[in-house]
Amino acid sequence: MLIDRPRAPKQPEIANQPVIPVLQKSAVSPEPLTLSTRLYNADLAPTKVEGRRWSGYNIFTLWANDVHSLGNYGFALGLFALGLGGWQILLALGIGSALLFVLLTISGYMGHKTGIPFPVMARIAFGVRGAQLASLIRGGVAIVWFGIQTFLASLVLRVLLIAIFPGLESMDQNSILGLSTLGWITFGALWLLQTYVVQHGMDMIRKYEAFAGPIILVTLAALAIWVLVEAGGTIAWSTADHLTGGVMWREIFAGAALWVSIYATFVLNFCDFTRACKTRKSIFHGNFWGIPINVLFFGAIVVVMAGGQYKINGEIVASPADVVNAIPNTPLLVIASLALIILTVAVNLMANFVAPIYALTNLFPQKLNFARAGLVSAVIGLVILPWNLYNSPAVINYFLGGLGALLGPLFGIIIADYWLIRKAKINVPELYTDAPSGAYYYRHGINPRALAAFLPAALSSLAIAFAPVLSSLAAFAWFIGAGLGAVIYFALADRTVTFDDVSGESIAVESVH
């Protein structure tokens, strides 16, 4: 299918591009095709099968960090406040995690087979140019959350520093663009740490996640045990106003659906990580231990924290950070705070940094590589002054909520195209050519059938997310959007096309480069 690499000069080193290969003729491409520098560089290229380093343990530690994020604890503890008891919370999380295990596994297999990141994966359904829509929506959501999560981690660091050095409290009283002097110092320190890690590529992120995972699991288990001891060894399994009957069951299923929706971003771009997995078993085992098993462990900690604190003083804890702040022993407070900071950085790196990096690299592949796109993402995450955005409900609800509502339709279309229409037959090299005869050029580089499926599904998702009359369906918005996108696209798909299954190995680069 592919000839040897041409004797052309190498691309500029600043773009991190290998020599651009040329495709031979095929059933799909009647004329030789040159891979486009507008679509191909070393970070967007498929990864070679040999030399991939991500194991099942690495996938597990992704979830060991992300599942135990402070935001997830806030969500699950909110279920207790809503009136669900211990077993109902565990059931809701169990149903949600079972669905997630399936969704993340089929999404992860796509990355392992093709070796490509999400922006390139989106070209299959949306076209080599239309894929910018999907990658920018995913990246846009992530880049704002990167800034916000860095800010939230900086709050924990501020509390920690003031606990150790009380004199620093005077630096936390002023305001410079909405942030105190101490706030700028703590935010800047965490911003620099994350930017440094990303400058060393995906393998450094893999190592950080592997380092952080065990620390998080041990720390949060210890916090739960501390609460249990303070509560006298027993907990309250529900509040005085606990739900029963049909309302209870609706909230259980709504909680399960919302748990899946929390990972709406990850199910889209999980291939960014699994493209470096050694085997499909790595994905399956990492997901199994990291999603259903780890989520049940997470649920147990939630139930102990919520029920224990409720028994102690009749109050419902809102976050593990609240438990940390209540620790009377300063050394233990320091250790727990450091663990929460390590956790938040780990979550931010994988959930909110990788996606915009690939989105920007896909937008400017001749100018940006992974490290440079990481720096651009970090700068954007800083200049938007995320603490001001976080304090604006309108921004969170309408901007991030609106973009989030579009993720379901994108997932439905991409999954239907890959698994149901093409049955996993992908011509990987032709994802990197913008010649009109290319398999994924469609019409001017855009697949009109994908757009025709996306628009009504996206409008439906937005209506469910924001129309008060449809508020009862809001918890299930992601499933409705994904289902509509998949069904409409499946109905519109061209059944006359014959699909080639061509490996990208001949144009692949080393997994670590």
TrEMBL record:
Keyword terms, alphabetized: Membrane, Transmembrane, Transmembrane helix
Membrane topology: Multi-pass membrane protein
Organism: Antrihabitans stalagmiti
Entry protein name: NCS1 family nucleobase:cation symporter-1
Family: Belongs to the purine-cytosine permease (2.A.39) family.
Any GO molecular function: nucleobase transmembrane transporter activity
InterPro entries: Pur-cyt_permease (IPR001248), Uracil/uridine/allantoin_perm (IPR045225)
Listed transmembrane segments: 73-106, 142-164, 176-198, 210-229, 249-270, 291-312, 332-358, 370-390, 396-421, 450-469, 475-492
Species classification: Bacteria, Bacillati, Actinomycetota, Actinomycetes, Mycobacteriales
